[in-house]
């Protein structure tokens, strides 16, 4: 194994810090890229002898070239994962242009491998109800929101770089688990439901996966992933009603949840967005786009990752329990 450092963007993020920990546990040195001023708490406890913390913005192409230089492998995880931001341009800047900057730097430096973190958001939904796989064309431009669209565009950028650098693309499902300091929209939904801030639900489908399983999938993609190939690192396919039932069974959630038509939920999301746009400038509880996206059957088949990478997932109840315990221990609940 090479002694050159491994560059990880988004290193202090939810998935990123688990990737960093696994790499250092293998005895590898990680050059961990943090945004200027980013909260570094997720990197606490990782062997400092194996960790080189550096600041860098993926929008700074020159800085990315300097940071990639001398590295053997690049894991690109930095992204904006939000359902709403005051200026959506930042989502496209980071998730699309930032990806191009990192991939260009990797190609120029001649790194051995790039593992690019995409998302299930870059894959479409089948009309026949069969879980989507890596070949399902993207068809969600209208029925989604800026994050989803940006991840699709970012994945197209990564695919375009495959002739120039050995890049393997991984698409995580909706991750839950310890270390979600943001929290991400997925984690925030769990927190809001358990706290009683969300009391309504609507028809829809989700794919929940443990964040540590996703991190292991990243390392498997470096080891076994094919150049230019995409792998869905997905877990358990559920309806929203199924997830609520599991939260009652596993976590003891007791308060009532009321079913509402999707159209009503979308209208409420639209109204909350108007308040956010014009008054609070803070991410609303739901948005029209996030409701439109989640109301579809977001179910995915991870067979390719299982067969080619050896990817496995742990039981859903274990993932839910670990996430809830971490949120409770860290004051989110």
TrEMBL record:
Q: Which domain of life, per UniProt?
A: Bacteria
Stored Pfam families: Epimerase
A GO cellular component annotation here is: cytoplasm
Q: Which InterPro entries match?
A: Epimerase_deHydtase (IPR001509), NAD(P)-bd_dom_sf (IPR036291), NAD(P)-dependent_oxidoreduct (IPR051783)
A GO molecular function assigned to this protein is: aldehyde dehydrogenase (NAD+) activity
What Gene3D superfamilies does the record tag this protein with? NAD(P)-binding Rossmann-like Domain
Q: What positions does the domain NAD-dependent epimerase/dehydratase occupy? A: 6-227
Q: What is this protein called?
A: Dihydroflavonol-4-reductase
Q: Recite the lineage of the species.
A: Bacteria, Pseudomonadati, Myxococcota, Polyangia, Nannocystales
